[in-house]
Amino acid sequence: MADAKREIERKYESDDGGLPDLTGVGPVAAVLDKGLVALDATYYDTADERLTAASLTLRRRTGGPDAGWHLKFPVAPGVRDEIRAPLSDTVPEELAALVRSRVRDAELIPLVRLRSARDVRHLVDAGGALLAEASLDTVTAERLTGKDRAAQWTEIEVELADGGDPALLDRLEKRLRKAGVRPAGSPSKLARALELTGGSRRAGTGPRPPVTAGDHVLAYLRAQRDVLVELDPAVRRDLPDAVHRMRVATRRARSTLRTFRGLLDRAVTDPVGAELKWLAGELGIDRDQEVLADRLTTALRSLPPALVTGPVPDRLTAWARARHGGAHAHLTGVLDSRRYLTLLDTLDALLADPPLRTAAGRKPRKALAKAVRKAERKLTDAVEQALRLPPGEERDLALHAARKKAKRTRYAAEAATEALGGPARSLTRSMKSLTTLLGDHQDSVMARRTLRELAAVAHAAGESTFTHGLLYGREEARAAATEAELAARWKEIGSGAAG
Predict the structure, then answer these.
(1) What positions does the domain CYTH occupy (predicted)?
(2) How far is CA 373 from CA 214, 367, 438, in A?
(3) 182 Cβ contact list (under 8 Å, min separation 6)
(4) CA proximity to 99, closest of 88, 107, 90
(5) How far from 13 is each of 16, 69, 152, 248, CA to CA, in Å?
(6) Model confidence at 147, in pLDDT bands (50, 70, 90)?
(7) With pLDDT > 90 as the criterion, what percentage of the chain qualifies?
(8) What confidence category does residue 306 fall into, taking pLDDT thresholds of 50, 70 and 90?
(9) DSSP one-letter code for 464
(10) Which DSSP letter does residue 17 get?
(11) 3-class DSSP state for residue 432?
(12) Distance of CA 196 to the CA centre of its chain
């Protein structure tokens, strides 16, 4: 099973190639010589260097205390999450899965071999606790694809100990700079190796700034595709909020294809929209469960102990764990499916050769504003129809439908923001406020449904259902308050909505 570690480090280079004495920098009481370590790492990528283009590194390394396979994801400058797996002859499946959204069907092949002679120093405090590790690395790089090419260099690396204070790195850098050491010109050894042995295919001009209406829509759609690909490994790792963010990106992409049908050929985009709807539904299984569990757990904890009768907390915890475990396993299977990978390929193809209609070549302000106004009108009809209905199941369903239209209006405004400016930003804020209210209402509907199910299980087991009923009543009151707030909020929003 792969392990994860947060890596915080900085790289430097020096003309004289030496490591200055760092004793006395902040809490550093001593610098301990840990000797020379021989490291041998082979970096893997696709032939067209897709991992390198995304600043990901996958390597197999021997030597040192952490020999094995390492997959690194960028978090911030100088900060990466490193996923580790034991040594094996081939790329471990758990790591291959984490790069599947980028690799797809391409083969991972050896790209570069780096052999380093690492002179290690431990920076410790007065009690001997490790604060950071500084090393002087003499590196030999060998390109393994194309013509045989090699390069050599020396660099200094300073890595913070687990749980260390990042401010220490700033103080160490100040000492290093005074000694003539400067930050490295490349963010990683692999990047430098590629530059010195013939370059990388990463270089490119990227998409041009949006000019036409179609450009703006495609830029927004491209951003959502990028989010999907980027969040795939986070969803597989079950990181907080990853499923939610991936689901939102999926919905944004689908909404964009629906809202801007006047600019895009529906014969091409409608099938893509159908697949995005499928993916959003699959992501929703896990996300809806997560939201429900959070809501019910918080509500239960807010009750005085005297009002909690029977094993309600234990049953709720068991229910949440069972549902989440099953949902996450199912979702991982979805991300490994041919259908999902084909969807990513289809999005790539659509963006590479967009099915633009004549209107897409027009100036953006008028064309995008027309689509946004149309979304607003549909929202207005949906909200006002829902508010005319009496409280109950029919209104709940109508408010849920209105929520979907509010999201579509919000995403349309987001896509048009660069072209329309202030009005689009204002509409986005209003729609965010509205969807929050409508979302809370829908969460209450789902919470009440779940409480009825849990109460039925408790009743069948001969347990008290008093607490379930109490929570149900509170959810009912909360929904009524939300509906009242929604009516008042809509008077403010609706007065400015398109007619």
Answers:
(1) 5-200
(2) 17, 10, 21
(3) 12, 13, 14
(4) 107
(5) 9, 26, 13, 42
(6) confident
(7) 84
(8) very high
(9) -
(10) -
(11) helix
(12) 32
Q: Which tokens is 239 given?
A: 């990181």
Task: Compute CA distances 454 → 237, 288, 343, 375, 441, whole Å.
Answer: 29, 16, 37, 39, 20
**Smallest Cα–Cα separation from 78: which of 5, 133, 158, 165?**
158
Residues 86 and 72: their CA atoms lie apart, in Å, by 15
Q: What are the residues whose beta carbons fall under 8 Å from the beta carbon of 492, sequence distance 6 or more?
A: none
Which residues, listed in sequence order, are joined to residue 307 by a DSSP beta bridge? Answer: none
Q: Which H or E run includes 43? A: strand 30-45
Secondary structure tally for the chain: helices H, strands E: 14, 9
Length of the chain: 499
pLDDT tens per residue, range 451-498: 999 999 999 999 999 999 999 999 999 999 999 999 999 988 865 554
Phi-psi sector, 69: left (phi>0), alpha (psi -120 to 50), beta:
beta
H-type helices in 31-145, by residue range? 50-53, 93-98, 100-103
The pairing of beta strand 109-124 with beta strand 57-62: unpaired
- Report the amino acid identity of residue 113: R
Instruction: Read off the tokens for 245.
Output: 């963010």
Distance CA 206, CA 215 (A): 13
Residue 81: strand pairing partners:
6, 73
Specify the pairing of strand 57-62 against strand 149-160: unpaired
> What is the DSSP code (8-state) at residue 307?
G
pLDDT of residue 141: 96
According to DSSP, the β-strands at 68-76 and 57-62 are antiparallel
Which residue has tokens 């990227």? 206
